[in-house]
Design brief:
Elements (H helix, E strand, L loop, with lengths): L3 E4 L3 H13 L3 E7 L6 H5 L2 E6 L10 H11 L3 E3 L9 H9 L3 E2 L4 H8 L1 H10 L15 H11 L3 E5 L9 E3 L5 H16 L4 E5 L4 E10 L5 E13 L2 E7 L6 H17 L4 E10 L7 E6 L6 H8 L3 H9 L16 E8 L1 E5 L6 E5 L2 E2 L2 E3 L6 E5 L6 E2 L6 E9 L2 H13 L2 E3 L5 H8 L2 H5 L6 H9 L6 H15 L25 E6 L6 E7 L4 E5 L23 E7 L20 E7 L2 E9 L4 E5 L2 E7 L2 H5 L10 E3 L4 E6 L6 E2 L4 E7 L2 E6 L4 E6 L6 E2 L4 E7 L9
Parallel strand pairs: 1-2, 1-4, 2-3, 4-5
Antiparallel strand pairs: 6-7, 6-8, 9-10, 9-12, 10-11, 11-14, 12-13, 14-21, 15-16, 17-20, 18-22, 19-21, 23-24, 23-30, 24-25, 25-26, 26-27, 27-28, 28-29, 29-30, 31-38, 32-34, 32-37, 33-36, 34-35, 36-38
Amino acid sequence: MFETVLVANRGEIAVRVIRTLRALGIRSVAVFSDADAEARHVREADTAVRIGPAAAAESYLSIPRLLEAAARTGAQAVHPGYGFLAENAAFARACTDAGLAFIGPPAGAIELMGDKIRAKETVQAAGVPVVPGSSGSGLTDAELAAAALGIGMPVLLKPSAGGGGKGMRLVRDASLLGEEIAAARREARGSFGDDTLLVERWVDRPRHIEIQVLADGHGHVIHLGERECSLQRRHQKIIEEAPSPFLDEATRAAMGEAAVQAARSCGYAGAGTVEFIVPGDDPSSYYFMEMNTRLQVEHPVTELITGLDLVEWQLRVAAGEELTLRQEDVTLTGHAVEARICAETARVSGDGARVDFLPSAGTVRLLREPAGEGVRVDSGLSEGTDVGTSYDPMLAKVIAHGPDRATALRRLRAALADTVVLGVDTNAGFLRRLLAHPDVVAGALDTGLVDRDAASLVRPAVPDEVYAAGALLRQRGLEPVPHGWVDPFSTPSGWRLGGEPAWTPHHLRVPGHEPVTVRVRGTARHAQVVVDAPAPAAGSGQSPAPSGSADTAPVSAGLTGAGPEAAGSARPVPQREPRDGGAITLHYDGVTQHFTAAPGPEGVWLGRDGDAWHLRGHDPVEGAAGGSGAAGADTLTAPMPGTVTVVKASVGDIVSAGQSLLVVEAMKMEHVISAPHDGTVAELDVTPGATVAMDQVLAVVTPAATGPAEES
């Protein structure tokens, strides 16, 4: 066995691998870019080496720098994790040439299975059923379009060199083939450095089921059962479970044997995964999709139901040991479900037809990870972690195991409710609601379920009690610290001589939502609160609701706990410094609710049941005068931090509603910015290659109905 292993990765998978290395008494070496100098995997390793700046191409994707780090630290082997260079045959070969053991399959197997076209041909020759699709590599755009038309719509465009959903495009309309092929090539080139595409028949309402295989260098290959990975968004998995609720024992055995044959066909060694697409109405009709020649993100669910440590077996196989397990020794116990916690914001489109899952960024201000019976967390997070858009958005995984599927689902939902990440938007609350979806509970899954029903799983508005908690925190920040006698005129009680106490207005805004005014009368502990209706967007033509209208009756409210005081404050609060974040309790309209709070920047973060909100101060005067708060229906803003890759319009162009104007890329994913209505491009201030911040104005489209002809 090895004495020292270098982990050529970052984040939660690096932490996960280090954990097994420590358990086996093996010295661990972490690598880090400048962006990760204070990261958790760096702190947990026995030693760590800087390998370059934040850009992945100059750090985590730099083979020479990784090999140099291994040489400097005396590493005998390299574990690639997943992503980055994990499925790069050149890296595996370079490690071998440098005298290092590559903890993964041989370079030849990576090369073969990494080319999806050759992989399909190889496994088909071994008797494994494959999805009907194009044949041959290096197809031109015209050849791809012709193959798609020959197969029949709908079709799926896929990069030959990659995975993880990047570059995949589902095309139902033949007239869009040219545009979708171009977009798929751009994403594939950006993600994998290779824009070769293939096209396959799309199976409607399919299930995505994969088989975990384990092989040694002595000819032994076994499978460890299946994982159901049908819950996906943007073709990327977000919930996985084992075993699948769809398969019976006969189908499980048949698919397992097909996976074993696929592994044998390429001379595989180590842990790998064979992925199948399965028609939702016929589990016996399964088709090979691809083989992932690495450890999968979702490997914990297999570990929990088999009792095996897959990283340990990767190490043992790479060290030349034989598998001591035979197929008959593998037993599946209970059920396990995993949820991927990603840095992203889910926003429903204006017409409500779709949900955009947009990368988010920020600094983790407060972190509470769940624990309890059957709960496991694989995480790369710690308080103070800066989450940017340079790397994959996955931050952590929460996994629950139970004696049966229903128990595992309940435990995972409870664990997600206990997950608190303040300072960056995550999908934890969305995943919790997804796990309660009736079809998910019933096991009636398919890869389109999330996209079809995502809008019903996104909170349409910020709950009133969230605004109330933010306003009361701000109110508390205005209150003097009691040290003996307190000047009654310094207390924001609203006291008036001979009259009714006045309201203290707090103007708050949550990104992605219109500003809200919360009026408070009294102290934070004993107050009346009115949450006014959100102000209409500038340019919407709607009139604001009158303050203090009859239908906004005051609600009794009070706040206790040790959260930050100056929530969303629009001006300095000299009386006291905000305390560290923590638990607060809100008594609102007769209901007691618990939040976790953390300060700033520019306001306060509140978390509850997996959801989180960033409440910022809002200046209504600046908004009315046309400042940053005035962005309305005509204005297109950046939905996330990223880089402009394509600009398709110019100032003065006449555009139609829904027409693509520009493309913003973040975390290797493209996001199209479209015209909100028919009209004219009045402003467009970005160019390809420009870096943009979240909520930055990109373009303004003046509605067609507001042209000069209507002016008096």
